[in-house]
Amino acid sequence: MKSDNEGVVYSVNCGGRSNDPLVCGIRDLLNSPHWEATLTSISGRSNGVADRLAHKAHSFTSFDLCQFDYPPENCTSLQIM
Fold first, then answer.
1. Which of 3, 4, 15, 18 could connect to 23 by a Cys-Cys bridge, CB 3.0–4.6 Å?
2. Does pTM top 0.85 for this prediction?
């Protein structure tokens, strides 16, 4: 998994003890013998499409999956690296 929030990545991977349930849950998944996973940093610019898709999803009224035949308008102006 990749995140553009370096503070969260550091907190999960290198931080000390935490009482935050989200941090603890992510650590549990990363350390589980049932999963092969890592959490790394990605630049905000490189993560632009995912960020815009997440913002688009907030406008949906349903949790049903949505398939796009074409990129949503809020993603077409991004320059892919």
1. 18
2. no
DSSP code string of 21-78: HHHHHHHHHHH-TT-----EE--TTTTHHHHHHHHHHTT-S--S----SS--GGGTTS
Whether residue 81 is predicted with pLDDT greater than 60 in this model: the reply is no
Q: Which residue has the higher pLDDT, 78 or 51?
A: 51
Burial 50-80 (b: 16+ CB within 10 A, else e): eebeeeeeeeeeeeeeeeeeeeeeebeeeee
